[in-house]
């Protein structure tokens, strides 16, 4: 089960970072319906943009994004069975990240609850190197590990590329207006969703891993509910929600997964230089 859990987390976390955004001004307020006082005050209601139009504008807006902050939660319920034996495992993850794109630097805090145990982790990726803290102890990763990890993270923070992958679902998305945001909603399933997952995964190094590709092929995606909120003025996303229900089978084992992932994006172009504190550098052990 551990192998499946780790592989699924790798696949699903890539889907979580579909865009970076700025939630300033996205207050979600609505106005009451009131009769217009005069004819000159009346304004025709603007037609809602299509999902295709929103995706295009979001991709273009994302290219101007130099840095952003993201917070997210992931709740998973995994059931693995073989014959009459079944094992259930719940995984809860919370993430807080600050990311700059060029150069690609990252500070991230993660809390994970797995099999009744909790683990806290902090991570820096900066010019000083890659540092990871687990349960209070800092470790500096070796140079040979940096290239592979950097390639994986780099693919995950290319929102304009990843958002393009969701263009295939544009025809199934419904656009609504909520205060200062446009919200795109869709319910997907089957091979179409699998192809979209493969496109998103291809943006990262893990998506080229034969084992990961094989796992995606084995997935029977029963349903996926997607919801993206985009600021009406900047066309930068403010949040991304996804609920996925899937099953798969490998080596006689059957697995079902129900996953609920929510992400919010803020501080667009407001993040300063990400540097590893000197005390972290001094205390870190070489791996």
Automatic annotation (TrEMBL):
| UniProt keyword list | Signal
A Pfam family it matches: DUF6612
Q: Which residues form the signal peptide?
A: 1-19
Name the species this protein comes from: Paenibacillus arenosi
Q: Does the keyword Signal apply?
A: yes
What are the boundaries of the region Disordered?
Answer: 27-48
Protein known as: Lipoprotein
Which superkingdom, per the lineage?
Bacteria
UniProt lists compositionally biased (Polar residues) regions at 27-43
